[in-house]
Design a protein that fits this description.
Largest interface: A-B, 43 and 43 residues
Largest sheet of chain B: 2 strands, antiparallel
Strand content of chain B: under 5%
Number of helices of chain A: 10
Number of domains of chain B: 1
Strand content of chain A: under 5%
Structural class of chain A: mainly alpha
Largest sheet of chain A: none
Order of helices and strands of chain B: HHHHHHHEEH
Oligomer: heterodimer
Shape of chain A: globular
Distance between the termini of chain A: 8 Å
Shape of chain B: globular
Helix content of chain A: over 70%
Number of strands of chain B: 2
Order of helices and strands of chain A: HHHHHHHHHH
Chain lengths: 197, 201
């Protein structure tokens, strides 16, 4: 697949949240206001782009040559957890304002299944290094997009009258469902029309 | 006994605690997948709860999260490999959601909140309760989605399959897609809240 194809695929067609069911916990948990949605979105994008690149290297330079692919799950999750920790430390040291903005979201990313998900998806699709990086980056952007749209909807919902039992996360799920319905317009046929592949 | 039933309604992991949503939505297109996923999650939960309740005292506090994650990942790998060997069709249809059990917040959540502070026996019970609650939630979602989205109920493919008359010729396809899943979960969450309130009284 071309680079453009990968970007369009993971931002729109296979949007992590709206069509692959990955990263739903923060999608519901952190989408209460736009500011935190953007913070979380950027933090995830950052970690995903790095994580896919590093797990690609790990898979191709360590796991496959040593024929220990069965340790994939263990190693990937450890790499992601330590990467998140490293990123947190680096951001705190080198860019205090960025840390102020992203800080509290960083530790939460380890348990965002989107990060491990996109790493596994890229490895299964046998992408090269550049493709893996782009897949991670665009998956992150897709996540950011979904989170941003959702937070806009939820800010509006706060001022609406919602039936008592549907308040909070149930209505958020239903709105998310309607949003996913709209995202179904971005399908593989549209993609091949756009980029001719 | 009370402890086992807490997972079903009052502390249902999916609908009330809103944990472990990603895998539950992704694999709930058929009842068969939902049962398989529940079984895999339960086995991992059981293993990690036992191991962690035994090990918790020996793990230094600063590194307990990474240590728990390694324990969990080990059980996930075991379950993943066993499923590939014995249930290849199921393992194929669950795909990357088996390795993703590692980041299912139910498991780390129970390790952190329960197993690390309680003896083995209680941790096993907790795993059974939570696993049961997860299974009930997952099967409930899958039942609604499969009946509406495919017009069938598949418990064991090829052996125990039912077609729903009327719906199997013209299913409401949207329920097989992510959009339908999110909507179903939303309404089921509201239903469980209402049930919780009713049984409270």
């Amino acid at each position: 697949m071309t680079y453009l194809g990968i970007i369009l695929t993971y931002v729109f067609v296979s949007n992590l949240v709206l069509s692959q069911f990955l990263g739903l916990c923060p999608f519901i948990g952190v989408s209460k206001n736009t500011e935190s949605a953007v913070g979380m979105g950027f933090a995830v994008t950052f970690v995903m782009s790095l994580a896919t690149l590093i797990t690609w290297a790990l898979q191709n330079f360590v796991l496959v040559p040593l024929r220990i692919e069965f340790l994939q799950t263990v190693t990937f999750i450890l790499v992601i957890a330590s990467l998140v920790q490293l990123v947190e430390m680096a951001v705190r040291k080198f860019s205090p304002p960025l840390y102020q903005a992203l800080g509290i979201y960083l530790p939460l990313i380890t348990t965002n299944c989107g990060v491990l998900g996109i790493a596994l998806i890229s490895v299964n699709a046998e992408y090269g290094p550049m493709e893996s990086f782009l897949a991670g980056l665009s998956a992150g952007i897709g996540f950011l997009l979904a989170l941003l749209l959702m937070s806009g909807i939820r800010e509006r919902l706060d001022t609406e009258r919602v039936p008592r039992h549907l308040k909070g996360s149930p209505i958020a799920f239903i709105s998310g469902g309607l949003m996913a319905l709209a995202f179904m317009a971005f399908d593989k046929a549209l993609l091949s029309n756009l980029i001719g592949g | 006994m009370r402890d086992i039933f807490k997972g079903l309604l009052k502390e249902n992991p999916i609908f009330v605690l809103a944990l472990g949503l990603c895998p539950s939505l992704a694999v709930s297109t058929s009842v068969n997948n939902a049962l398989g996923m529940s079984l895999a999650t339960f086995l991992v939960l059981l293993g990690s709860n036992i191991a962690i309740s035994l090990l918790a005292r020996h793990i230094p506090d600063e590194i307990h999260i990474p240590a728990y994650i390694v324990v969990i990942a080990t059980f996930v790998t075991l379950v993943d490999m066993s499923m590939q060997a014995w249930l290849p069709a199921l393992s194929q249809s669950l795909g990357i959601f088996i390795p993703l059990i590692v980041v299912n917040c139910i498991i780390l959540g129970r390790a952190e909140a329960f197993a690390s502070k309680n003896p083995v026996g209680a941790s096993i019970l907790d795993a059974v309760a939570m696993g049961l609650g997860f299974a009930v939630g997952l099967v409930a979602i899958a039942l609604v989605r499969e009946i509406l989205g495919a017009g069938s109920i598949t418990i064991v493919p090829g052996i125990l399959e039912f077609a729903v008359p009327g719906l199997s010729e013209k299913p409401v396809l949207v329920f097989a897609f992510p959009a339908g899943a999110l909507i179903v979960v939303g309404f089921l969450q509201a239903l469980f809240r209402w049930l919780g309130e009713v049984t409270e009284k």
